[in-house]
Design a protein that fits this description.
Length: 437
């Protein structure tokens, strides 16, 4: 079936599945229509400023207190949380991996999450974790919510359907989905096995970056974000609800589906975004701006201009700058960069970085174009060139990203990654022209 969406970022939405199920002019009537229960889901403190105050009112078949019984602790071994230091013996360095293999055993979205890095502290709600996911089967009667942070999901192979308590979101490679902290959901596969990336944001929720002198348009435009309309199922069969809380997992068994919100209104809701609608800006004469110009979403920290997490993409775009080394320059950075490739080729790493792959350049570790990319860009005729059929992204945080044991021991880690810079020659010879032989 086709699912419907409402446009806009951070809007105050209202949606109902049954006519008259959404109260008008009030939030909590004495007896809501259809015998529903009124319940508020808050994404911020009650007294947060209006611009950051987030809450939604849900009108549901059962209140959430009926979606839990007694909890039992369970283990989900490969999903880790910060702080997670000393988890491996691998020495510091620039790191890169080929894609995580698809599983042979039956694996759903929840059991298919593998944490690559953690940063910050889940207990103080700062930092993030970077995961990959692989799955080959649906979550049928299992549901989950994450009390530790919101999840930004980046599909790389195969489409995923997020059946949430506030509506259904179908997300294909080239799109992203954001699931707020505390939202109940399950995941179904649209067209076979799937693989992708997840940023688990422990801190302030993602928002659109300020455009500054860019002005009112370009980058990610608010109208291109899509929030689902209400959708519910009245399923009276045994189900489970799994909760992630302070890095640990707990499960409760219930006799019905928790996806039972008939109507809702508010501004705390899941959404998706098509990355192809991002309108990039760049240099049109010489040099090029910092890669922050490609920020889609940012989760701010307490320090202005220093993000808890940035989600940055490198989309198709024209390169036109004159007398300019056009790929990203060599640099060391106070931020830590977890990078993935959804499709195509990344211009700074034309060999070895493939769709589904991962790279990690931690704070102050030097990185930049490989030797092949440097040679090509240094000798290219500087005609206008379009980088096409590509989409790379970066989870960038102010905190060091600590590698997990899973990532350190993953068989797809490229032990020879550091060698991609070995061919960078000394070209200084004391003359202005240097040695380009």
């Amino acid at each position: 079936m086709a699912y419907s969406y409402m446009p806009g970022f951070g809007n105050d939405f209202e949606t109902e599945t049954l006519a008259g199920s959404l109260p008008q002019g009030r939030n909590s009537p004495q007896r809501p229509a259809y015998g529903l229960y009124a319940e508020q889901l808050s994404g911020s403190p009650f007294t947060a400023p209006r611009g950051t105050n987030e809450r939604s009112w849900l009108y549901r078949i059962r209140p959430s207190v009926r979606h839990t019984a007694r909890f039992e602790a369970i283990a989900i071994e490969d999903w880790k949380s910060a702080p997670n230091p000393g988890d491996h013996q691998l020495a510091l360095g620039q790191l890169r991996w080929d894609p995580v293999p698809m599983p042979n055993a039956e694996t759903d979205f929840l059991s298919g999450i593998r944490t690559m890095t953690t940063a910050g502290d889940v207990y103080t709600q700062t930092g993030m974790a970077a995961h990959v996911y692989v799955a080959n089967t649906d979550m049928v009667d299992d549901h989950v919510f994450n009390a530790d942070g919101e999840l930004l999901v980046v599909p790389q192979e195969g489409g995923v359907r997020f059946v949430t308590e506030m509506g259904v979101i179908e997300t294909m490679p080239g799109e992203i989905c954001v699931l707020p902290r505390g939202l109940v959901f399950k995941v179904e596969l649209i067209d076979g096995p799937v693989r992708g990336y997840i940023c688990e944001n422990y801190g302030a929720k993602f928002t659109l970056p300020d455009r500054g002198p860019i002005g009112a348009n370009c980058l990610a435009n608010p109208r291109d974000f899509k929030t689902p309309v209400a959708w519910f199922e009245e399923k009276e069969t045994p189900c489970r609800l799994i909760v992630k809380w302070c890095g640990n997992f707990h499960v409760t068994e219930i006799d019905h589906s928790p996806i039972d919100v008939v109507a809702w209104h508010g501004n705390y809701a899941p959404y998706k975004y098509d990355l192809s609608t991002f309108s990039p800006v760049g240099a049109i004469l010489f040099d090029h701006p910092d890669p922050s110009i490609f920020t889609v979403l940012t989760a701010p920290s307490g320090e202005e201009g220093t993000a808890n997490v940035d989600f940055v993409i490198f989309p198709p775009r024209w390169l036109v700058a004159e007398d300019t080394f056009r790929p990203p320059w060599y640099h060391r950075n106070i931020m830590s960069e977890f990078m993935g490739l959804i499709r195509g080729q990344y211009d700074a790493k034309e060999e070895g970085f493939v769709p589904g792959g991962i790279s990690l350049h931690n704070m102050m570790l030097a990185h930049g174009p490989d030797a092949f990319g440097f040679e090509k860009a240094s000798r290219a005729d500087l005609e206008p060139v379009k980088l096409d059929h590509t989409m790379a992204f970066m989870f960038e945080t102010r905190f060091p990203q600590m590698l997990t044991r899973y990532a350190a021991e993953l068989e797809t880690r490229q032990d020879n990654y550091i060698d991609c810079w070995a061919g960078l020659k000394k070209r200084f010879n004391g003359t202005p022209d240097g040695d380009w032989s």
